[in-house]
Design a protein that fits this description.
- Helices cover 46% and strands 17% of the residues.
- The termini are far apart.
- The protein is of the alpha/beta class and 339 residues long.
- It has an 8-stranded parallel barrel with strand order 1-2-5-8-9-10-11-12, surrounded by 7 helices. The chain has a two-stranded antiparallel ribbon with strand order 3-4. A two-stranded antiparallel sheet has the order 6-7.
- The longest helix is centred in the middle third of the chain and has 21 residues.
- Helix 10 runs parallel beside helix 12.
- The protein has one domain: TIM Barrel (Alpha-Beta Barrel).
């Protein structure tokens, strides 16, 4: 796999006015979301739901890539594999490759992401199955005396090794160190921890000789904790987020894709719009939302084939709203309009 191909894939994923759909929910996560709506989490229901998302007419106008789950990349729709189905409509297929989080031994309340064992072989198989990019998520929690430097550094090194292995396999890595919204921390504290995390991650990436031009960063917006008494205005969030990224992310990285991290769909879009409207960033800024793109569609679908068209319309609307937000063109009028 040539460097030119990796570079072109990274740029295609951050194409102007497009973002990435994260549809890589693990078994426990999708079961939890299905259960609220009374949908049994069977393999067929999971396949039908992902098919609904990917078959949405016009989705490729606003979505550049889709992150798949291991089960989904192996499933078929209409006689074709999910990656083939996506590629046919101009959407780049990718896959989540980490094995989820586990408790970090000796560090109460902190987690490390697992999945490095056998990863080289798995990446080669995913490449054969049609994946063109990968994603690995690390989680950094905030709390009293948390996070520790050990937790940040351990996750940074795992992210760096994942990225190096992905590039070796001809896959563009999306490196995702997520600073969680849970807690009562302030906006300033989130900015501080996010900057520390980014510095550690990029230090590890340098040490592992990862080509920054051939990767993407997936990160959260700088936000106060959900339980913080003093919530921040949209403009404050945009200012803090851009300041933090300018201090922590090298300009060689071609793109930064924001995760929604538990924000409501409209709030995530409003904040994305404010961040992208500022201009002057050395990287392309866009989105890689999961729940903030899917939530309305899932609630409409409820497992019924009769609701597919309405659910797809809801997904397309959210995708369009966010595609406009990355151009700084989102507004209340756009939100209230139909696709």
């Amino acid at each position: 796999m040539t460097a030119t191909t990796l570079l072109s894939t990274a740029h295609a994923l951050t194409a102007s006015g497009k973002g990435i759909l994260a549809a890589d929910e693990s078994f426990p996560t999708i079961e939890k979301r299905f259960k609220v709506l009374g949908i049994p989490s069977t393999e067929e229901n999971r396949r039908a739901y992902r098919e609904l998302l990917f078959a949405t007419p016009g989705l490729g106008e606003f979505i550049s890539g889709v992150i798949l789950f291991d089960e989904t990349i192996r499933q078929k729709t209409g006689g074709a594999s999910m990656p083939e189905t996506l590629a046919r409509i101009g959407i780049i297929p990718g896959v989540k490759v980490d094995g989820g989080t586990m408790a970090l031994p000796g560090f109460a309340g902190e987690k490390i992401t697992q999945g490095l064992d056998g990863l080289r072989e798995k990446l080669a198989a995913y490449r054969e199955q049609g994946a063109r990019f990968t994603k690995w998520r690390a989680v950094i929690g905030l709390g009293e005396r948390l996070p520790t430097a050990t937790c940040i550094e351990a996750n940074a090194r795992a992210l760096a090794l994942f990225a190096a292995l992905s590039q070796e396999a001809g896959l563009v890595p999306i490196v995702e160190p997520e600073v969680l919204m849970d807690g009562d921390h302030s906006l300033a504290r989130c900015e501080e921890v996010t900057r520390m995390t980014l510095e550690s991650v990029f230090g590890a990436l340098f040490e592992h000789r990862v080509a920054l031009e051939h990767m993407l960063l997936k990160t959260g917006m700088v936000l106060p904790g959900k339980e913080c008494r003093q919530q921040a205005e949209v403009g404050e969030i945009a200012e803090a987020t851009l300041r933090c990224l300018r201090r922590g992310v090298p300009a060689a990285v071609p793109g930064i894709v924001f995760l929604s991290g538990g924000q409501s769909d409209v709030a995530a879009t409003e904040r994305l719009n404010a961040i992208c409207a500022g201009g002057g960033a050395p990287w392309t800024l866009t989105f890689s939302f999961g729940r903030a793109l899917q939530d309305a569609a899932l609630k409409i679908w409820k497992g019924s084939p009769a609701n597919v068209a309405a659910a797809q319309a809801a997904l397309l609307h959210r995708a369009k709203c966010n595609a406009l937000a990355v151009q700084g063109k989102y507004s209340a009028d756009v939100e209230s309009a139909t696709v």
